[in-house]
Write a structure and sequence with these properties.
Blueprint: H1 2-16, E1 18-26, E2 33-38, E3 57-63, E4 67-73, E5 109-113, E6 123-128, E7 137-142, E8 152-154, H2 177-181, H3 184-187, H4 202-210, E9 226-228, E10 232-237, H5 246-250, H6 258-266, H7 300-315
Parallel strand pairs: 1-10
Antiparallel strand pairs: 1-3, 2-4, 4-5, 5-6, 6-9, 7-8, 7-10
Helix pairs in contact: 4-7
Length: 316
């Protein structure tokens, strides 16, 4: 009897440390290999990368206070006879497990900072296109008790609308303007490293119009960071369209409660040098400058899109 009580007490103790369950769902027409990078100072999850076949799911438990990011790798080849790699969002480990390495841009990122478990301690989460885009992804919260607890992400296939100068050669991912051109105004670096001096570019506006709830540039906090308390989260790749939540994710978040949202933002983690402004920044991403010559090769559709984006920035 005493042994049973001890076991039950240990079970309660262990259970109380769990902050959230993350469930990964693959609705793509191909296999996805999720990658996981844990923020410094928090314990790693049970895996840092795994294979997720089409129409399958897998759940992982995270402790209170955990922070990190998730992404989906595509076109991976791991045959067991040597180092493998992925065509998009590769972490460079040569293995299915990323082993502490982050995603090589372009990559659609889901970023989380879980609450500490104390009463009223909120989770912060977002989907970021600051490091570019490789596949659709949405995040949904369930069972949360307070906060916005809203769905966020990007259900639009941005690869179809990516400007020519941001396209990766095989068309399976779309670079950020920062990676393509390496200029401070696109990277929110140097003299542009504050919310006041870093403004959305026409390229960021393209991403924002397509995916209103996802981060489009480093300081895109007000409409891109979401909070919830005591929730579990589902990360879905390639959400089927139409779905019941597509309209919600594609809708521009309301800013009528700006004071409440700003208050939440004041307690969120501070912006990093890469990835979204409010999400965890476990590891800085290496950026390379793209050829400026590519900007001379706009197609007509890209010029039209940039004109609309510029008008969007001017009026709003």
């Amino acid at each position: 009897m005493a042994l049973f009580k001890l076991f039950f007490a240990l079970l309660l103790l262990c259970t109380s440390t769990y902050g959230a369950k993350f469930t990964f769902v693959n609705k793509c027409e191909y296999t996805v290999w999720p990658g996981i990078l844990t923020g410094s100072g928090t314990p790693p999850l049970e895996t840092t990368g795994f294979e997720l076949p089409q129409q399958s799911s897998r759940s992982l438990q995270a402790p209170n206070g955990w922070s990190g990011r998730f992404w989906g790798r595509t076109g991976c080849k791991f045959n067991g006879t040597g180092p493998g790699s992925c065509s998009t969002a590769d972490c460079g480990s040569g293995q299915v497990e990323c082993n502490g390495a982050g995603a090589a841009p372009p990559a659609t990122l889901a970023e989380f900072t879980l609450g500490s478990g104390s009463q009223g301690s909120q989770d912060f989460y977002d989907v970021s296109l600051v490091d570019g885009y490789n596949l659709p992804m949405i995040v949904e919260a369930s069972g949360g008790s307070s906060g916005m607890c809203a769905a966020t992400g990007c259900v639009t296939d941005l690869n179809k609308y990516c400007p020519d100068e941001l396209k990766v050669s095989n068309g399976d991912s779309c670079k950020s303007a920062c990676e393509a051109f390496g200029k401070p105004e696109y990277c929110c670096s140097g003299a542009h490293n504050t919310p006041e001096t870093c403004k959305p570019s026409a390229y960021a506006a393209i991403f924002k119009m397509a995916c209103p709830r996802a981060y489009s540039y480093a300081y895109d906090d007000l409409t891109s960071t979401f909070t919830c308390t005591g929730a579990d989260y589902t990360i879905t790749f390639c959400t089927s369209i139409p779905t019941s939540h597509t309209a919600v994710v594609n809708a521009t978040p309301s800013t009528t409660n700006g004071n409440e949202q700003q208050a939440a933002m004041s307690s969120a983690p501070s912006p990093g040098t890469s990835g979204s402004g409010s999400g965890p920044e476990p590891e800085p991403m290496m950026r390379t400058s793209g050829s400026s010559d590519s900007r001379r090769n706009h197609s007509l559709s890209t010029l039209q899109f940039l004109f609309i984006a510029s008008a969007f920035i001017f009026f709003f």
